[in-house]
Amino acid sequence: MSTVESEKKKKKEAFDAEAGSLLMKELRGTFASGKTRSYEWRVSQLNALSNLLVDHEQQIVDALLNDLAKPPLETVVYEIAMLKNSCKVALKELKHWMASEKVKTSLTTFPSSAEIVSEPLGVVLIISAWNYPLLLSLDPVVGAIAAGNAVVLKPSEIAPAMSSLLAKLLGEHMDNSSIRVVEGAVDETSALLQQKWDKIFYTGNGRVGRIVMAAAAKHLTPVVLELGGKSPVVVDSNINLKVATRRIIAGKWGCNNGQACISPDYVITTKDYAPKLVDALKTELEKFYGKNPLESKDLSRIVNSNHFARLAKLLDDDKVSGKIVYGGEKDEGKLRISPTVLLDVPRDSLIMSEEIFGPLLPILTVDKLEESFDVINSGSKPLAAYIFTTDKKLKEQFVMTVSAGGLVVNDTTLHLAVHTLPFGGVGESGVGAYHGKFSFDAFSHKKAVLYRSFMGDASVRYPPYTNTKLRLLKALIGGGILGIIRALFGLS
Fold first, then answer.
1. Residue 87 falls in the annotated catalytic set
2. Among 226, 284, 355, 428, which one carries the catalytic annotation?
3. Which residue from 141, 232, 258, 449 has the least number of CB within 10 angstroms?
4. What pLDDT is stored for residue 268 in this prediction?
């Protein structure tokens, strides 16, 4: 094949707006057939997804080693196992989730009965992120399938090995008349966003989130936006410092080396307690990652050179370069940055103006710990917020005062694993939530249904309108028996 012919073939195969339109037409045809609505189809696809994870575990581990040098334990536990659990929960609860919910009616519609019916939205688009490219791609897919939708998944091109593997595995194991993967970058995503979807689910940053929301608005398409933010950790002095420190490290560096939307972004503690916290962090970090953490196989690398340069710029800022109390080593060739702790970082520094999304942990100090709540609330609402304390009053104040997508007391990130809790942001950290039944609900329409017979057809609702009818209808809508009796006798 000549070079010209090869280029022509590539152009022909390119995914553009026309290809997007054809794809949408196919999937709308499948959805209209009713195929995806059946309990049997939903179960078959959830089982296929669960089996895929078991059969191809090593390929998944290898892909994430390729994309992020992600430690196999993190891949198996935080991506594969959590995804298998999502499938397990959905399979166990699906009949219950699909069942209509009987609800009470009132005297206004007597005699009647009513129910809420969950119906699939239709054809949905899921745009995924690179940092947990398996979990954040397929966890929403579990919810979309469970709810009975046709699905298009757009994995992140920044994790190319995982993107390619997802396209291959879903192509081989799932029902391709209903579930499709579209690979690519900006052009392909733009072509997808031109289509009219029944819901768009996006995981990533606020900048792209705004683009997604603007595209969705053209069609009045509802969205779920799973974004991020600067997730704080408040550290009190009355705690088990060793346990707290290990849990902060696990949430920060043990989750993809800080490249996670819910990883601790910065710490707030008192001026008096900060030195003890720094010493504890130094001790435990060295235990976990050794004296030369750049060589540790238990730390993911930075995903690409652009993100490496972004993080290096944060560290090189004149306002913080002298604030490093641990770490700070960089290896640009291997895209590695060691766990780095910074103390007394100015609040107007570059590192405090944006989500860090990497292995840098600034510590801010306050005179009294209660001041930390004002610090947190002075910025955008984060995706997560954490506190370590044994003070009951402080815990209650934290829960009541701090607005975030989710809160954890005396640990970090673990709320992600509780399927009975909604996972999502608030304000600039996101719109909507998922996990467990919340995933099913995110991709469902709750349809109100009222049933009436031909009995009980009262003339009071029909013209000609009279004062008696007005009194009776007001009493009926108010719902009180006594009021209705009074209206009938002209007493109200």
1. no
2. 226
3. 449
4. 98
